[in-house]
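User: Can you predict the 3D structure for this chain?
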Amino acid sequence: MKNNLTENLSPPVLHPWLRKLTLAFVPGATTPLLEGFVAELLNNFRQHGHTLQPHPMKGVEVLLTTAALGEPVNWRKSLLLTARTRYKLENSPIVFTLMHATPTELQRLLDHFETALRKEPLDPNDFAFPGLTENAYHTLSEQGKRGGPILSVVRLLQSQAKSIRIILVIGEDHPQYAYTFDLVGAHPRTRADDLAAFYADLMNRIVTAASTHEITAHQVLGEPIPTSTWKNLTTPSAMRVAGHELGLRNFFTEMVSITNLVSVPAVQDAVSSQYSEGCFATWDPKLGALVTTVTGSARPVDKENITDDELAVIVGVRSDEQGALIRLVEGNRNDPPSSEAVELIAMDANLPKIHLDQEWELDVDVPVARSKLHGHRGMRAYDPKLVEHVYLDTPYYHYPVSCSTEAQAHAIQDAFSRSEALQNPADPRLVVFTVLPGHGIVIVEKWAPGKAPFQVIWEFMDQGVIEIDNLVPQGPLTFVPNEQGRMVIQTFG
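Assistant: Here is the predicted structure, written as structure tokens:
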């Protein structure tokens, strides 16, 4: 089995597509430990051939800055929100904010949220912090209930620092370990037992993030689908049913609204006002296309109660792979598909097709993967007789990538291309999944006669064939058999 236990425990393997970067450091509030940390980190970038500018100027790709724990950064000083304008840049660099907390300070925050999250009902005053809105308690508590107190800490520090990507260094006089935070709430931990490896690891996490690019430049293809054709399809109603059924099983995490956390006028120019809690899609044989949920970045989308205006149609991937090829639907609002659009349809390229005949009242070839579900959840265990797990390539367990990037789309496509159950349509396993460290899971369902789209998945949830977990692994993982023959997740680091 590829990416087995031994491979996951091996020293970190770098992605082959990493680039040399151009960076600049913009000092902010600091501590003695943070000053030394910054100096060593910048020295690592120099030693590995990256370019450091004395201040942000043309060509800069990454900006590093510092901020003080617990002290809100004014939005006018936030590099995430103002760097492009302030330094007259042609692009918007990726911003990493470096912060320092002592072990006692971090534990105090974790204990505070753990106590607050146990209260019934919740006390909004427990979630009141400098720089946050009165509504912040809703997001901080929801995130904490989903991912534990550490996720409440992630959202608190991101909000106060006005920065999405944060490296939080923990230590008294010298680093002991560091967390790396991102938009989806990832928080992998890097230990500082070996300082050379510690700084190299954090440098490589920054380089990984900056070496990818978004693939959301979707392109409209052909004429709009006529209203009459759309109304005669069964897929839109099946998607509504699936959203409701998955919602009943609490699969979808609540959308994070940035404006619930902080009130800043420039936020929509730098980052979407909210990010989606996942997406799902199923193949429509009559359209010969994938019907999927739309992006949640433009406006909130309740996946449990979707409408036709919250569905999009994907027919392929652009030749330059910069986005998906979509068809509009006459009379619908036609918002663009979810940022995961490319990964949802690209995986079909390396997989076989099957033929649907009289049993389906059809005569058409379709992708072996019928329905696809992407969510910010983990997988605790599964029955290997009915479900297959596929591994990503090894580097993705040590250096995860963000959603909506070409790197994640390729990772998912490659992982599912190795699926025995998908490559062999006769394989009795009807569900295949992979785990995205720091992010979530992608679940694929094959065609099953007599079943509606996603029905196999939600029935497997009910039967315990798959066990969805709130906690998302943050790094290397494997699945090992227990005494009952079920495969149970084991994580490392």
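DSSP finds 16 helices and 24 strands in the chain. The longest strand covers residues 94-101.
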